[in-house]
């Protein structure tokens, strides 16, 4: 893709007039500046066609969001648009040619928060490009800190791995890779023995390290810490997220109408309780178009084929917790 075409791939942010949506606008503005991309602010407003008052309300929401973007960033191309339709489907369509879609999600139990939560989950599963979910908890949204990546299998998670490494490099941050061992627990550990568990941990660390070697070659300046932890993964991801700027998760692509509103339990829990923004990337679908080129924009050459694990793991760090988190 040429530089002119790359510049046309916008960062899209959805707004609904809420405070968390304005936080999403500020986060999206800073991210668009980092990426050298224009910002497109979208408000789904089917109601605006029914009355003049509705049109004025939609215009007011977009004007306020535009003002927030102007305050958060300078020398940035910002456009606004009101679109009709169902919120999730309309935002997904608006982001069809985008490199990133940003939405907000409240952290309370009010009806508005629950409704927004449901819409956000639907957006995450309906949108082709990565979706950044800015959480409405804890006050200010973190602007710096490490990137946390939850991973099951390097091959299956190639898209979220690429996005996580690219983001860490773009923000000059470290990357924490969290992999949860399944089939562990006090009873199973006692039966299998500590030596068997240690071998499983070592094998998992080796597999992930070898699998990540192409990205290590592509992003040599990104320090990586690998954490092999006990399942379930969400508690470890949330704990790591306390010191993070961003959590990156891969989700399965679900095509059926019923499945599009459902994420995996780990993704669902992390989205609901994360102390920082969460970036959801569909796994199993190669990154193509604007999303792929945005990830590769600061990356240099294409990753080489996997190479043998180096004799010394530096700058990789093996992390094995001394005890399991309380459940």
Major sheet: order of its strands?
Answer: 3-2-1-4-5-10-9-6-7-8-11
Assembly of the depicted chains: single chain
* Discrete helix count: 11
Which residue ranges are poorly predicted, with pLDDT under 50 across at least 5 consecutive positions? 1-7, 110-114, 255-262, 297-316, 320-327
- The percent range for strand residues is 15-25%
- Mean of the pLDDT scores? 80
- Secondary-structure class: alpha/beta
Overall number of strands: 11
- Rg: 20 Å
Share of helical residues: 40-55%
Shape: elongated
Give the biggest beta sheet: 11 strands, mixed
H/E element string?
A: HEHEHEHEHEEHEHHEHEHEHE
The span between the termini is 48 Å
Can you put this structure into words, describing what you see?
With 327 residues, the protein is α/β, with parallel strands linked by helices. The chain contains 11 helices and 11 strands. It has helices at residues 3-7, 19-35, 52-72, 87-94, 111-126, 158-170, 186-192, 194-218, 234-241, 265-273, 289-296, and strands spanning 11-15, 39-44, 78-83, 100-106, 131-136, 146-150, 175-181, 224-230, 244-252, 278-283, 317-319. An 11-stranded mixed β-sheet has the order 3-2-1-4-5-10-9-6-7-8-11, sandwiched between helices.
